[in-house]
Amino acid sequence: MPLEEECRSLDAADPLAAVVAQFAPGEPGVLYFDANSIGAMPLGAERAMARLGDQWRRLRRRGWTDADWLEAPARLGGKLAPVVGAEPGSVIVCDSTSVNLHKLVWMGLEMNSGRNVVLSEKGTFPTDLYVAENAARARGASLRLVASPEEIEKSLKGDVALLLLSHTDYRSAYRHDLATLTRMAHDRGVLVLWDLSHSAGAVETALAAGQADFAVGCGYKYLCGGPGSPAWLYVAPRHQAAAQPAIAGWMGHAEPMAFDASYRAAPGVKRHLAGTPPVSGNALMEAALDLWADIEPRAAFEKHARLGDLLIRTVQELTPQSGLQLASPREAARRGGFVAFRHARAAQLADSLNAVGVVVSHRKPDILRFGLSPLYHRYLDVWELGVRLKGRTT
Ligand SMILES: *Cc1c(COP(=O)(O)O)cnc(C)c1O
Q1: Which residue, among 391, 394, 386, has the nearest Cα to 33 in the 3D structure?
Q2: Active-site position among 174, 220, 301, 379
Q3: Structure pTM?
Q4: Structural domains in the chain?
Q5: Is the pLDDT of residue 357 over 70?
Q6: Helices (H), the chain
Q7: Distance of CA 303 to the CA centre of its chain
Q8: CB of 193 closer than 6 angstroms to any ligand 1 atom
């Protein structure tokens, strides 16, 4: 079957087709495959903004209770938990990924205080490294980096307290095997903190099944929470009572409204809340998370894998002379949210694709990234991408 026909029949049989229709169309004629800063806008976000405006205008202070603004971090965490394979009551939506990383690097070092090294990879997303190095230094520990995934195992030595990994590499989309690495670390007494920013909402992350200790992720990429949306954090239920939070704020107090002079940590994951929740950001994030109420996560992850396989085939079939070389693993189970290719003139190609209405993202020196969402992409979008690529690459 020709590729175009195949895409049409995949779309016709797509169990997520109704979800695709719940996104606002972008600019007419523009194919959106950006992989970095922001996912598409759910139609529900517009309704959420209007609803919040109405609540603010009418309820004012009473919104905290009557509109449940105060409970949003835990409520949203409850909606996100099944998407990332987490236990109920183990996720809260709050702050930025960087802030949440600080909290959990701190907690990992606190829980494993006989050891004084945070281990990570050189290629980890820069903010993760900055935060980890600084938090480690503040606790009299240090950050140690390995050059490649193959070196992780032999570097899990007796002084390592915490292993901090990006589940998906932000340049190649290489996806670690979360369960295997977690088990390997646990066998050596090391806790593991996963950054799921380039995975959550696109691929399976199975935190509970993989025995993960801690995780963080952003809300605005594949989760489509909107510009600057709040991030989230996960603490395994078995660890939740193990340590005081790094930031002891009133929202993480056992009784915020008691105005006690001293701090008592809230039970569960809520102790990691710090200050007043971002009500407008949470309202948009909730509109995005509500899309998952009708989605079987496994169906979404299967669609994502198929989109990625199709994208690779499309590039190879339509543009054999394209100069694009796959930089991501061919096996879908080893790829995160996007597919990356190398190209000798990647920056120029990104610009010329932009000129024909294809938005992709470029990472220096030679990487082009095509972000794929199981929620808002159609299979035909990938075919159309191939058509436009063909005109630009030779
Ligand atoms: C996008 C991303 C972040 C973003 O961090 P913020 O503090 O939310 O800006 C962090 N880590 C990784 C791996 C990312 O991909």
Answers
A1: 386
A2: 220
A3: 0.97
A4: 3-32+296-389 (3.90.1150.10), 48-294 (3.40.640.10)
A5: yes
A6: 3-12, 17-20, 43-59, 63-66, 72-80, 97-111, 126-138, 152-155, 178-187, 279-290, 297-318, 346-355, 379-393
A7: 17
A8: no
Retrieve residue 353's tokens.
């694709």
Ligand 1 atom closest to the CA of 98, numbered from 1: 7
Check the CA dihedral 48-54-57-58 and report its sign. negative
Structural contact between residues 57 and 79, judged by C-beta atoms closer than 8 angstroms: no
pLDDT at 345 over 60: yes
The residues, ordered by sequence, that sit 6+ positions from 129 with a Cβ below 8 Å of its Cβ are 120, 143, 145
- Closest ligand 1 atom to residue 198 Cα is 15
Instruction: Identify which of 93, 94, 96, 97 to mutate to test ligand 1's pocket (most ligand atoms within 8 A of the CB).
Output: 97
**pLDDT digit string (tens) for 187-201?**
999 999 999 999 999
Query: 139 is written with which tokens?
Result: 């606790």
33 is catalytic: no
Count each helix (H run) and each strand (E run) in the chain, helices first.
13, 13
Tell me how far CA of residue 287 lies from CA of 43, 219, 262, in angstroms. 8, 12, 36
96 CB near ligand 1 (under 6 Å):
yes
CA 156 from chain centre, in angstroms, equals: 25
